[in-house]
Design a protein that fits this description.
The protein contains three helices and four strands. Helix 1 packs antiparallel against helix 3. The longest helix is centred in the first third of the chain and has 14 residues. About 20% of the residues are buried. Helices cover about 35% and strands about 30% of the residues. It has a single domain, classed as Alpha-Beta Plaits (2-Layer Sandwich), CATH 3.30.70. The chain is of the alpha+beta class.
Length: about 100
Amino acid sequence: MAKGYWIAHVTVTDPDNYPKYLEAARPAFEKYGATFVVRGGQYAEVEGPARERNVVVEFDSFETAKACYHSPEYAAAAKLRHAYADSDFVIVEGTD
């Protein structure tokens, strides 16, 4: 079964409060077995616009990745992310 991934490109607009989002999201990440593959770090802008923070989160499956995003545990955290950052966010299926 192919894994599932969250890919997010984020511009933090309120760095003092952004850690509240990370803390609020932790229960969902733990429940759904999220593994952070990329979390910030260096990047090279080579085509198109970029955001300052790039994140890739791995899940056991595409369905698990979607379930985590749509879970009650993550819903509250997502509201904080929307308040403290601008982001582009997709959920994708990996290859077998």
